[in-house]
Amino acid sequence: MIFIATLISLLIERFFHWGHLRQWRWFSIYQNKLNTKIGQLNPAIRLAIYVLPFVLVVGIISRVLTGWSYDIFHLVFATIVLLYCLGPGNLWAQAYQCLNELNKDDPRHAPEFAQTAFEIPLPENSQAFHQALLRVLFVAANQRIFAVIFWFAILGPMGAVLYRMVELCGSSSTSTVTDFAIKTKKILDWLPVRIFTFIFALTGHFSKVFARWKSGIQQGIDANDLVLVECGTAALDVVKDNRVPEDGSAEKEALLLFDRTLVLALVILAVIVLLV
């Protein structure tokens, strides 16, 4: 069930643009209402109050649906939950739209679109823009896709909800547990990042990626983004003298790398399911 739900969700996410249907504003409203009542509690307790009720409800529903009609209802529910927890924006749609803006007669709107889609500060020049966009694509690929799938594979629908809600608490300007949520997310990211980047080595330039991956495996949670960027850049082998091509080719190669990586990740997941 985990494999089929993951496969369906990835196919939909990759080839259909429906990220605009994912709305998490209700979660911010929920946090704001609770803040007045639990604002004095320990950050760990507050984060648990924000997140665990939804995780438990999803777990209960998942448990109840297990075994009905050959698990069809469970599969549908798990797929919907995973799709909802990906994103919140569609990585491929936003990235390709940003690259399309670069190819227009007036490419000045590309940095503005990237700022909206990926929260990139407006760059000083074209080189700075491409470096920032390439870095954020690697981080976003893990945060929006791979880490969610990893925890979904480990804990089922509960894992996907747990990761996304912790991430939202860490990125919300209205949350009162932002710092603690950011640290918790880094802990949740540590293992997925190392697995994700190792698959980069298998689908990219192995020796260059593996050399960086070996040092990254020894680093703590604060190095997650650095490991992603360094291993991803090494897998592409397009950055020369710390300069990124300014024609969008590096970003396109990164998106193709994500495709290959996710295909191999699905193969690995299928093998694990068969063996277990």
Indicate the structural class: mainly alpha
- Overall pLDDT level: 88
- Domains (count): 1
- Our count of helices gives 12
What is the N-to-C order of secondary-structure elements (H for helix, E for strand)? HHHHHHHHHHHH
Helical content stands at: over 70%
How many E strands? 0
Anisotropy-based shape: globular
Distance between the termini: 13 Å
- Give the biggest beta sheet: none
Strand content: under 5%
Runs in which pLDDT lies below 50 for 5 or more consecutive residues are none
Rg over alpha carbons: 19 Å
In short:
The chain has helices spanning 2-15, 25-38, 43-65, 72-85, 91-102, 109-118, 126-155, 157-171, 178-203, 206-216, 224-236, 249-275. It has 276 residues and is an all-alpha fold. It has one domain (2-275).
Any chance you could write out the topology, listing elements then pairs?
Layout: H1 2-15, H2 25-38, H3 43-65, H4 72-85, H5 91-102, H6 109-118, H7 126-155, H8 157-171, H9 178-203, H10 206-216, H11 224-236, H12 249-275
Helix pairs in contact: 1-4, 1-12, 3-4, 3-8, 4-8, 5-6, 7-8, 7-9, 7-11, 7-12, 8-9, 9-10, 9-11, 9-12, 10-11, 11-12
